[in-house]
Design a protein that fits this description.
By secondary structure, this protein is mainly β. The chain is built from two helices and seven strands; from the N terminus they run βαββββββα. The longest helix has 5 residues, at 87-91. The radius of gyration is 13 Å and the shape is globular. The chain starts with 6 loop residues before the first strand and ends in a 9-residue tail after the last helix.
Amino acid sequence: MDHSSHVRLAESELTESVLKDATVYGADDHKVGQVSHLHGTGSMAEAVIDVGGFLGIGSKPVAVPLGQLDFMRDEDGNVHAVTSWTKDELKDMPEHRHQH
């Protein structure tokens, strides 16, 4: 997929309601995961990505800084992200555990 023509999201659009369920594409342009939710706010916010698995089963949530993801909309208006990480690199990250 050629992401160069896709419209980048404005900082004001980087909210959980916009980014939730966005597909994340890795360095090799393969789907590496999906945004589960955001953790924190502003410049310190992290996106929690469900990596791997199939239909939500067996996936592993990992948290990455929002700044490490390039969020955009495709021609159909679907929000997705591109990162320089590969699926294997994301899978090797520590699992994100929700703090209660």
